[in-house]
Structure formats: structure tokens, C-alpha cells
Fold Dihydrofolate reductase.
Amino acid sequence: MRKIISFMHISLDGFVAGPNGEMNWIRVDQEIFDHVEKRIGGGDTALYGRVTFDMMESYWPTAADSPTASKHDIVHSKWYSEVHKVVLSKTLEGTNLPNTTIISDNIADKINAIREQEGSDILLFGSPTATHSLIQLGLIDGYWLFVNPVILGEGIPLFTGIKDKIKLDLVNTKQFTSGVTELDYVVAKQ
């Protein structure tokens, strides 16, 4: 069965965005982009909530077309156009977007059906609301966290509404020159 890995930038105090969704505190640079590109390069499925999907759709399909496109823009735009996108949304209606599946109900059953298909890990990008739903359904198999050296004090937490303790095993760490630290966890087998 394919695993669902939550990919998220997070503050030291556990927030994924400021109180109004601000993400201007996230540190990214070419070193982080290169590292992420290696890991997601073989990925074939990306999972998004509607808000994150809308943000991605507004930029990545044409990002490589700009005369000032960075290496990251070119590589990620190509990956984004090829990857199968799964969107959790109660408001997004059937769309004609290529390579996109929208799930609006029976989330656990439909996600598990996708997990049973051939392919690599399913990467859940950003999308705190979708992440909260999948945590509550017990569908997240790992967390790929980029801890940014900032304390926000308030905002949108990554972990909320947890009913039962979730034990994790640390499988990788990496320190970047920007001060960001990657923590890669898998959910421990019970």
C-alpha cells in the first residue's frame, strides 16, 4: 500500500501559517529546492486541500514559461504538470483540469482506493485543513517537516484535534545553511 507523507514547513512552535495564513516567515533557497526536488522527482501523486491547490494552480502550470524563470521554477513546473493531483474539497466542482481527481466525500474510502493503486508515496503538500482531516482519519503515514527558525506565537497549528497519541520514528534529519532543519518521521507501527 502506498504511503501518505505530509510535507510541511513549520515554525519552531508548531504553526504552519500565521493567524491569517501568512507564510512570509518560511525560508527557502536553492539548497532546499535542490533537496526537495531530489525527493519528489520520482513522485507521481500530490495531494492538496482546495486552498493550496488553488495557489499551486495559479502559478505552477506556467511558471516555467517566464523569461525570468529560475531553475526551481522550471523543474517544479514540469513535475507539477506531470504529477497526478488529488484535491480534497467540498466546494470545488468537477473540473476539466488534466490529471486531477477531486474528492469531496467518503474521503477515507477514496484515499485508500488511491493508496491501493501502483505508484510511489503520495505527498500531501501544505494544506493544513486537509492534513487535519487525514490525521483524524489515521491516513498519514509520515511527516516530512521543515522546521523554520522562528517562533510565531499564534497561527494555524499543524497538530490539532488529536484524540490519541501518535508515536513517530525519526528516519532522517538534515540541517540547511539557512537555519531550517528537516525532520523526516514515519508513524511508528503499533
